[in-house]
Design a protein that fits this description.
The relative contact order is 0.13. The chain contains eight helices and 17 strands. The protein is elongated, with a radius of gyration of 24 Å. It is α+β, with helices and mostly antiparallel strands and about 325 residues long. The strands form four sheets. Strands 1, 2, 5, 6, 14, 15, 16 and 17 form an eight-stranded antiparallel sheet that branches. Strands 9-8-7-13 form a four-stranded antiparallel sheet, with no helix packed on it. The protein has a three-stranded antiparallel sheet with strand order 10-11-12, with no helix packed on it.
Amino acid sequence: MNYYFLLYFSLLISLLGIVGWLVSEAKYEGRHSKLINRITFVFPFFALYAWFRLNLDFGVVLVFLTFGSLLIWLLAKYLVIPRASKESRSFFIIILAITIFRSFLYEPFQIPSSSMFPGLKIGDFLLVEKFTYGLRNPVNQKTFIPTGKPKRGDVVIFVPEHTKCSSDFDIANPKGSYSSDREKNQRMYYWSILSENCTSQGVKYIKRVIAEPGDEVIYRNKEFIINGIKLDQKILDKRDQEELIEEINEGKEYIVRKLSRKPENGSWNVPEGYYFLAGDNRDNSLDSRRWGLVPQEEITGKASLIWMHWECFSCLPSLSRNGLIK
């Protein structure tokens, strides 16, 4: 299916429906408004479906709806259409509140994979704090008011460079951040996963901050060593195929999972403006150990709360996992 065609066609029909609604309210006392609404009702949902299938930023949709509803309200006021003015004003206020809340306060996020198990599971719905690291333009995601920086142990939402079709290997793998003897394999792996997963806007990931700018990272025998100091670990449960470990990083305690697989050792230097991220499911997570570092500008928020668990469409939502994220 051509989702761009579906998007543009649905937007056009929706726009024509708005024009028809205004004409009906202005000239025919709303006699045709119900019919127009019934005909055009589904097309905004088609447009949203196409938008999500194209992996376009939903923040842009909210900004577009906010300004669109404001324009309709002002136009209805100017043309003296009382009922249309009242309805569009109510819609504008609601959309404006949602846009402000999602863009600057909290954004919902659903866990898509098991890379953060056992702390976070597939189907967990999270609230992501958007204001922790800075206020961003909801259209281009550029920070205009910085408010803080990620810290070791934080669970963050970000867009890794390799998920963008226009990505640059050197952005995620700046010179000097990894040993030169690994460059060939690093480049081969990077471009192989890029061809499989890239989109125009990139894909949002969730991982834990292991190291900050200026840190030296060593991963050896399934343990992280930061600036020469091994992260404290305590075995909580040990089975044939896995271990659950309590790990402490900068005073933050959380549980990681290790499987009986051969570890991939390596060392990195984290330059200014970059972070080293890893999943808690250490042997089942593609992260900075494989595709490189993450610029601070790509970290969009801090995961703070599980508010619902809904694993599949046919399953019932559950609140049993609700709580703060460690």
